Amino acid sequence: MLDKAMSVLHAVADSPCGLADLCERTELPRATAHRLAVGLETHRLLARDGDGQWHIGPAVTELARHVKDPLLAAGASVLPRLRELTGESVQLYRREGTSRICVAALEPPAGLRDTVPVGTRLPMTAGSGAKVLLAYADTATQHAVLPAASFSDRTLAEVRKRGWAQSVAEREPGVASVSAPVRDARGVVIAAVSVSGPIDRIGRRPGARWAADLVAAAEALTRRL
């Protein structure tokens, strides 16, 4: 039952939804989905808006405040400087299975932005952050993702060789990005730090412009870890 409750939480985290959409996303029977959602609502892990749609509740944020995450602590020190250097949106991504999760994000103060809210789950099939995380993932994960990816295993080899990745209009039309791997004390890649923004501003060779800054930021994060 806990697994089913977690599937309800993840389904609502993707975007607010009513009971019909919740059943479709979780593939749970209507009565089961409703019972679980109401139970989660009772514990304030879910909440309902005026239209009756469920969204993530305040208890999730309250619990998150008690989490001591070294990566987020390091990001709080490094990401603002990276945003200042580039003037673009910056993010930190962790891999979870065959997806990547945005665990930290900062937006530029003005202009067009590539907004990726914290908690957003993205596929590993496109984008510079996906390339970085997949390049250092286990073989089974690579084999599961690559058949549907917009890049090849040769691209991943290039990422490992040069230490960063770029993408142009892969994840989203009109958006370009650059990413670099963040390692823990053992040298294991645990995250990807990214800069993203409109192609019209970043250009079609974002790596030439921002790769050095991304690698430096990734190294700074690694040192703090």
UniProtKB/TrEMBL annotation:
One of its GO terms (molecular function) is DNA binding. It holds the Pfam family IclR_C. PROSITE patterns: HTH_ICLR, ICLR_ED. The keyword Amino-acid biosynthesis does not apply. Residues 59-225 form the IclR-ED domain. InterPro entries: GAF-like_dom_sf, HTH_MetabolicPath_Reg, Tscrpt_reg_IclR_C, Tscrpt_reg_IclR_N, WH-like_DNA-bd_sf, WH_DNA-bd_sf. It comes from the Bacteria. One of its GO terms (biological process) is negative regulation of DNA-templated transcription. Residues 1-58 form the HTH iclR-type domain. Keywords: DNA-binding, Transcription, Transcription regulation. PANTHER family: HELIX-TURN-HELIX TRANSCRIPTIONAL REGULATOR, ICLR FAMILY, TRANSCRIPTIONAL REGULATORY PROTEIN. This is IclR family transcriptional regulator.
